[in-house]
Amino acid sequence: MFLSDIKNKVGRTVGILATATMIALPGSYAVVPSPRTEAFDVWGAVIGGAISYAQLDSEINTYNKSEKGRQALFEHLKQRYGVNSDPELNAYIDRIMRNLTNAIATVDPSINEMPYNYFINNEQSFNAFCTLGHNLTINTGLFGVLNREDEIAVVLAHEMGHGQKNHPANGARNSLGVSILASSAGGGILAAIAANALTNQGITKPMEREADSLAFEYLTHSPYNPGACGAVWQRVIDKSGNNPDNFLTFLAGGSDHPSHASRRDSYAKKIYKYSGERVEVKDGNVKINGQHFMTPAPYGDMSGAERSFLVAGNLARAFQNGQNGENAWASGNTIMLGNQEIATVVDGDEAAEVLVGRLNGIK
Question: pTM of the predicted model, to two decimals?
């Protein structure tokens, strides 16, 4: 609410108060304070509230935009959640963040103005989150659920989508009450921002959908398979039974977040569009131009449905790059279309030569 709106609202309140100074109740009289006194109290409360919200907004901007503020928040996050210094995991995340940063820069160069701070924390739940100031952290527990680099890249791309669109700051404005300002001198607002980041308070369904869309866009400009976006959600469904309560995650469901299945299906539509409306993936089946191509079998801890999104993503990229005009061929058990890998045949899949022939017949 702008200050002019507040003044208008208070003016209307004063007008109402001026019309009555006494209210008759059965058996008694209730005397209302004089209009002048009441108006003063209302106006004072409004002014106080406006100042409080302005102070809150100033605090949020400090941690979101100033280098000193965002570094202070970064250090607070590390102290609060701990740091996993495993060299292999950190090198792994360094590579993903480098690839995603380069990909995002091709469509949103503003990322170069504020590179992301990031670290792996010691939390064992399946989660990652981005908060104010492009501060991002990944729970160690994430690696217990996802073990493919493409799929982990999806999670980080989603969080960076939040950061690029300033969702954390907008969410903080929506979810933090001015009452925390009373303890801000002792780090209260900093603690509140860090705690809200973990639980995604203030992040709305439209924000989640926008971050999902951006993750797909970012992956199409990266070395990673864009089909991994749908594969992540299929994996979550496989492991949670599509029950959001089974995961405490950046994906957590509830009324403010889209369902797992709706997010997976949204990615299927994006694959279809990205492929030039040629590649469809549904119920574990992959079609090209409406014709059956492949129903991948389960492999290791991956369901056939999860694999189907990866196959569809590879096909979509090949079509997007114009490689559908080239012949499919097999390199051992790996099916290729031009120089694009499409799928590696495993036990339970049809033979590589069968799939190569089918692909050449319908692409």
Answer: 0.81
